[in-house]
Amino acid sequence: MNLPDVLRLARSLMEEADVGDWDLAFDRARRRAGQTDHARRRITLSRHLMSLYDEAQVRETILHEIAHARVGPRHGHDAVWAAEATRLGATGRRLIDAQAPRLRGRWVGRCPAGHEVDRMRRPASPVSCSRCAPRFSLEHLLAWSLDGEPVPHERISERYSRLLRQAHIHPPDDPAGSSRTLSS
Q1: pTM here?
Q2: Angle, to 10 degrees, between the axis of helix 55-71 and the axis of helix 3-16?
């Protein structure tokens, strides 16, 4: 949806719901669609995601945030919030539909079997594939690329490289462990 139309729709829905005196702005978020800041009485919407979403997805996001504004900061996504979201015309679900457009992260990790994950930020520590191994496994270590260019493990960061060297020397062998990342 184009951004001026998003703002018009949001303002209209906010006025109808008696939160028209709250500030409204776009932010640079790439994963979350909206945010309600009670301290500043401000609703922000992701400029990136709103431009990808259709009107129904934009409306759902706006009503979701308006429900947060109306019920107050102590309710999160509880039953009180869900009831208010539903009353306003939203679904009352915590997350937007999984089929909604999303932005792919600049960092893409691929396991030896070809499974991929993407991240907005550089990986802080070595990660293995969650689909191939229930806990960290060097055998299922993700190989990373940044903006489509492969990045050797030793060039990701000094910390990443150190942790990976340690894993090769002392492989994780705690059968109770469930983490798919290494950390120090």
Answers
A1: 0.75
A2: 40
Domain limits for position 132? 107-169
Measured CA to CA, the distance from residue 24 to residue 55 in angstroms comes to 18
52-89 pLDDT, tens digit each: 999 999 999 999 999 999 999 999 999 999 999 999 99
The distance in angstroms from the start CA to the end CA of the chain is: 44
Token digits for 98? 């999984």
DSSP of 59-128, one letter per residue? HHHHHHHHHHHHH-TT-TTSHHHHHHHHHHTS---SS--TTS--PPPSEEEE-TT--EEEESS--SS-BB
Question: In Å, what is the CA distance from 135 to each residue of 139, 169, 174, 179?
Answer: 11, 18, 10, 5
Asked whether the beta carbons of 36 and 68 are under 8 A apart, the reply is yes
Which residue type is seen at 21?
D
**What element of type H or E holds 164?**
helix 158-169
Q: How far is CA 22 from the centre of its chain?
A: 24
**77 and 14 housed in the same domain:** yes
C-beta neighbour count of 69 within 10 angstroms: 20
For residues 51 and 127, state if they share a domain: no
